[in-house]
Please model this.
Amino acid sequence: MSQQYTLNVNARASTGRSSSRRLRKVNQIPAILYGKHTSPVTLSVDGPEFTRLVKAIAGKAALIELKRAGANGSLSFLQEVQRDPITDRFLHVDLQEVKSDEKMEIRVRISLVGESFGVKNQSGVLETPSLQVRIRCLPKDLPPLIEVDVTELKVGETIHIGELKAIPGVEYLDDKSQPVVSCVEPVAEEVAATPAAGAAPAAGAAAPAAGDAKAAAAAPAADAKAGAAAPAAGDKKAAAPAGAKPAAPAKK
Model:
């Protein structure tokens, strides 16, 4: 049987967003208690006290006794807890009332036990399609977790709801063929066909070695200079360089 906890709650008359904001400003959390045979009751809980409760429960299924001033205590469990996605602050709490002599339906987290043969010896990977299973039981029979032994699980094998270990007083409500945990082969990483940006060029397209680059760059310039200095074919006189003085006439 799971451990039982206590939580102090207060009745609240006003509802709506404005009322909820005012409660949060004074470190209170809006809450509501649903009952199978009663109308919903709006409540508020102390923020620090509820934070300690959540840490103590640590994700397990647990019964919570609600204590209210001027009212009898009631037994419940956490149905849903809403949190701010940015600050992780508690925004709202839904509680489900239960009766000690009446069966209840609840989702309980699974806990994998042992080291899988497929993981240890076949490089397999465990996959859990769902982290919770739905059960029906009396409050006194509520297990905190559903333990699943994966020691003999090999690559390619799956444990289904119908193969879970029987727990006295507990009835599994999910389809018996629903997978709980599987051992699968690891997904191979794909190798890119094209080189990444900045990669070295192929061997056939290698850049010129250091030292050859200067020669390659200088060759066109040298060719251009030589072509400019040589006279055209068929010229009788070579063109004088720019700025040169004409040669003196020969003496007779």
In short: The domain at 106-184 is CATH 2.170.120.20 (RNA Polymerase Alpha Subunit; Chain A, domain 2). Confidence is low (pLDDT under 50) at residues 201-252. The first strand starts at residue 4 and ends at 11. The two ends are 136 Å apart (CA to CA).
